[in-house]
Amino acid sequence: MHSDSNDLDFDPLVIHKCLSDQTRLLITLMIFTEVELSVGELCDALQESQPKISRALGVLRNCGIVSDRRRGQWAFYSISDKLPLWAIDILDASVVSMRSKLLAANQLLNQSANRPDKHN
């Protein structure tokens, strides 16, 4: 899934800059732990507006951290399969250090009315 062959395509400085914003970091970690999330789910989980979440996702997509797939009106975001292993290690460590914020966001996510059926 993730490989070292993509290391040259990713600049560590760019990755760190993309993750330096708290909203972008939390979005990335939520997606990393949940595998795939929609904008609505992220809005509910992080208690942020749709424009703010969409802008942050655009930055993360441009950095190569997330990718999206569309199904009807829904866009689902996941961690890019091109992300190198060293970047995955950063995400793993960040999940540990941000555990309390992620648990709170996960509780809100589980209460979200914006949980589409992704299996179709």
Automatic annotation (TrEMBL):
<keyword id="KW-0805">Transcription regulation</keyword>
<dbReference type="InterPro" id="IPR051081">
    <property type="entry name" value="HTH_MetalResp_TranReg"/>
</dbReference>
<keyword id="KW-0804">Transcription</keyword>
<keyword id="KW-0238">DNA-binding</keyword>
<dbReference type="InterPro" id="IPR036388">
    <property type="entry name" value="WH-like_DNA-bd_sf"/>
</dbReference>
<feature type="domain" description="HTH arsR-type">
    <location>
        <begin position="4"/>
        <end position="102"/>
    </location>
</feature>
<dbReference type="InterPro" id="IPR001845">
    <property type="entry name" value="HTH_ArsR_DNA-bd_dom"/>
</dbReference>
<dbReference type="InterPro" id="IPR036390">
    <property type="entry name" value="WH_DNA-bd_sf"/>
</dbReference>
<dbReference type="InterPro" id="IPR011991">
    <property type="entry name" value="ArsR-like_HTH"/>
</dbReference>
<dbReference type="Pfam" id="PF01022">
    <property type="entry name" value="HTH_5"/>
</dbReference>
<protein>
    <submittedName>
        <fullName>Transcriptional regulator ArsR family</fullName>
    </submittedName>
</protein>
<keyword id="KW-0059">Arsenical resistance</keyword>
